[in-house]
Amino acid sequence: MSDKLDFLRTIKPFDLLPEEVLAEVAASLQEVQHPREGVIYFQDETKLRGLDILVEGEYETFFYDSQQNRRVVEYSRPGDCYGGVSLLLNRKKSLRTVVAKKNTRVYFLHRREFLALCQGYEGFFHFFTARYGQRMLNEEYAHFVRPLTSAGQSYLASDQLFSRRIETLELRPMVLCAAYTPIHEVARRMAEARTSCYFITDADVDGQIIGYVTDITLRDKVVAGLADAHLPVETIMDAPVVSISSRAFVHEAILLMFRTKTRYLLVETDGEYMGFLSRNKLLTDDQAQSPFIFIQSVKQAQAVPELKRRWEQVPEMVYQLLNRGVKPEIVNQVITTVSDTIALKLIEGAIAELGPPPARFVYMVLGSEGRKEQTLLTDQDNAIIYEDKANEQRELVRAYFLKFAEMVSDQLNEIGFSYCEGGFMAKNPKWTHSLSHWKRNYVEWMTEANPEAGMQFAASFDCRYIYGDAEIMDELHTFLDAELQKPRERFFHYMAVNALQYEPPLTFFRNIRTFAHGDQQVFNLKRTMSPIVDLVRMYALKHRIFATNTGERLEALRAAGVFTEREAQELLQSYYYLMGVRLKKQAAQIISDNVAPDNYLDPKSLTKVEQVTLKEIFKVIADFQLKIKVGFTKSLG
Fold first, then answer.
1. CB of 613 closer than 8 Å to CB of 22
2. 200 has which bridge partners?
3. Between the CA of residue 27 and those of 208, 232, 574, 594, what are the distances in Å?
4. Residue 425: predicted pLDDT
């Protein structure tokens, strides 16, 4: 045991692991001997059971060409690992043929333990994916790596899709015209340039892009709408334009397109537009299959029964994405985008049935959906803010939005988003109000804070706009920004108390504390994660950061110098590790067990490495809770 542990400390990437985790890994290693010239694995045929760590001897690795010649011959020697790339990126099949050149001794790590380490420790995972990327720069090596037959078969497709940045894509060049250009002239230029999108600039503001025109715009507004083609193009253009940084990931661009319902996305670098992306092009690329095509199908669904069927397919998609190594925070975003898309379909349907709203408004979501961190066990958390109206119109406006909220909420419940037991729904008259009423609510929660209010209304600070007039949400944020600059010690004191309500389930002897649930001993994953959500929210509000997503809040707090790089990464990795365990467990309950998902986890269902990783995470949470206790709750003992 001690020999294995000492050896692992010297091996990359095992030297990145915490000492206690490394000890558990060492205890789980099996020693295996391979005779000289023995063929251990066959190229693209042998399914690997785990990772080999060479201790003595040598592996010769190569590809066979069509004439059975050995190509790209490489040697693995003591301290090298074989199998990590194959397990992650080649459907668990050996990328190459492997022969033992001497009497060879290896330590074998089972793939379940290996994948648990990849999920728990990002640096460990990226060691293997980086090696793959470096080797794929060798043209001969890349030639012999067989392409996958479908996007859903391994980590490889997900690695290409979810790790690729927009700057690596070929952008379409922008074509521009001034807002006063006649419609018929723009149509002529579009035909000449063979483009389906023309961007419109404001002649008075230094060529600022203010909108765009597409083939669909011309069809719907000019041909079908019988508009005068001699009018300025600004009279029919679509607005606003939506942009994204070239440093963002491809999946973020696709999700942003779905959320904003735009088919074209401007790409900027350092404030300068470099070109644009087309949603159709991204969705027809081989790299952008599965979840995004599925979201498109949700968008095209016609009625509640079809939307219900689509929502019932989400657990299977979640399970596949997690098995392919897609990060839990990205899976959260996919779930949220599907959920948002369903809500938007219902909102638009309700407006079509009830008629245009009598006032400007926003429909917002709260809690986990507001944070873009939905799981498969989710209820409704939503609210409506409408603009203030004159006295004689107030009752009319309120009656419309309560009817509207009831219609949307009832259909969400029918689809599978159950009513909120606590009543945090727009359907509840308490959660549909004018902007001035909402402002009074927030002031009351902040000035008359107490432990109960801290727990009850914390999720209201996770509000995210999904439909309506964004200016109303902006006005609320401006108001909250001003209010949070006032002395709010009592408010933050009870926010801190709320973040300390649940202690990580770690005993004095570093065991996982459990309780009985049926015939199992379990702990509650949701409650274990809640201190991270609560403390990050508290720090974000303290520094007037109005991002709602936990990861985005952490990044903003790190950028502001509130958290160090290490602190932010520890919290981020802890939170999303727990999220991954939670999502996968819920998906398995729905798919395999045919039972309603829950948040309970039996530690015995985890590998030893996973159990040790959980203990490390619980320690991280406890350390941060101590930081809150010192910084925000001076009166606490």
1. no
2. 177, 211
3. 63, 74, 24, 36
4. 92
